[in-house]
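protien #1 (seq + structre)
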Amino acid sequence: MKPPRFAYHDPQSLSEALALLGRLDNARLLAGGQSLMPMLNMRLATPDHIIDLNGIADLAFIKVEPEALAVGAMTRQRDVEFDARIRSRCPLMHEAVLQVGHRQTRNRGTLGGSLCHLDPSAELITVAAAMDAVVTAQSKNGSRDVPFAEFPAGLMTPALRPGELVTAVRFPLWREGHGHAFVEFSRRHGDFAIVSAAALLEEAGGKITRASLTLGGIAPAPVRVAEVERMLTGSVPAIELFREAGEACRKLEVMEDVHVTAAYRRQLAAVLSRRALEKAHERVARH
């Protein structure tokens, strides 16, 4: 199939892109295009204007700040995959990006594009939820920071105001030596996950001092399992504890679709949560 007719715009600066976005009606932004182009071809999106962000070099960067990892919206998933700083300081993101599509799609796909597309099963949005990421959105009138917990406004709908685009995402860093794990179940490697689980643990004195558990693919947006996080914090890590945490995930409200039933998703949520927590515990640095 072919996409509908549209006017193509190729800004070379952020200010130029924001000006276009502010004055054009029914415009869509083109980042990596790995989701937008199929949507255009299937007529699921019919914009009058396409604003290509690929010429704006300032939107592609990776910076390690004192307390956070800052990643530009146009940073390729391939660059995230091979960046040594991400692998050492943000290993959860490194592990997750290896399960995003295939090498060919990661060559073009971007962090910002994935977050704005907000597919419920996308790996990087689950990482953003797990790490309490903060999204920077900018318009010609200024910028604002949006906690990722408030970023999904609905199914595949980001909480962006008219004229705004995402410029960067900041991921607060966990203490060095923390445990991490990202596990998922999909029909084939490279497919979107049916269910995924992201776990982060910090331990000291033989107890869990901080925990994060997030499930992707079970709802329109990633789900932080706060009940399990409270259960884990202050507890002695053990197989039975992680099994109990997994079983608690069976109580979550999950969606059903043409791929699997709600009961199947609950089973995956329980099993993958337990596996992620066990793996994260095994990876905690012992001092």
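ok now protien #2
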Amino acid sequence: MTAAEGAAPRATVLIADDSPTVRALVRFELEAAGYAVVEAADGQEALTVAGGGGVDVVLLDVEMPVLDGYGAIVALKADPETAELPVVFLTGRAEGGDVVEALRLGAQDYLCKPPQTSELLARVGAAVEVSGLRAELRRRTEELARASRTDHLTGLHNRRHLDEQYQQLLSAARRHGVPLTVLIVDVDHFKQVNDRYGHPAGDAVLQEVASRIAASVRTEDVVGRWGGEEFLVLAPHSDLPGGAALAERLRAGVGATPVVTAGTSVPVTVSVGGATTGGSRAGGRDDDLLRTADANLYAAKAAGRDRCQVTPGAPPEAADASF
């Protein structure tokens, strides 16, 4: 038993070489050092194994049947799923064009066959470190991207994301002649909640309202915090009756029970204003649905709050006249 046996593998290395002897030799050395190893006998098989995921480093022979090392690395770098995998070339010739061509195509390093144990482990270790750094960079980049589109208080999408989704969904609705409903949900008397119960309670109310709205929509709907105590719901393929029913479901779901925060029961209701394209291919400006939904929200509040008003989207002149 080696010192590495029984421990979690340090990383997974793919050995792609048409020689079973070379594969067995390299596997023995890597497994003894604690690496997990998978094998491929040619370049095409290497692409299949790497594309399946779970590989951290590729050791790639230059001369292989079906697809040689040059063709394999070109394919690996062309696939977004494997483009960042570190590749170390295995070559029987350290001189000439093999190494230069390998590095030109994106290889991180090279090893001469048969590789010396110390050199093999050093170069594979360096490649694993690069793989880990790239994975960490991807993770942080994805986190930053999510954070830039997420409202920090409610965890819903923020206005930036909603603006982009609105334009895309509206364009698709008009292009394909399918309906789109836009709903603006506003917490009634929210200033009084802050004044009476305090801002921490107000934050808790917004978080709970966000959770109740998210629980009331369909999977394909887009929900986010529009600003302050307002939330926006984009409901693709939802016509006027469907949009009105969704608005009522949101209103009833939010107001069904008080929000309990810090031992205090806070009654909460919302008003909902909405508008739908009705599936028309004809245009109007991009902001017509939002303007009409906003006007309907004001109308719902003026009528007593804790109610919904959803209408077809107004033409540009009608939307302008409402302000």
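Residues 1-7, 280-286, 315-323 have pLDDT under 50 and may be disordered.
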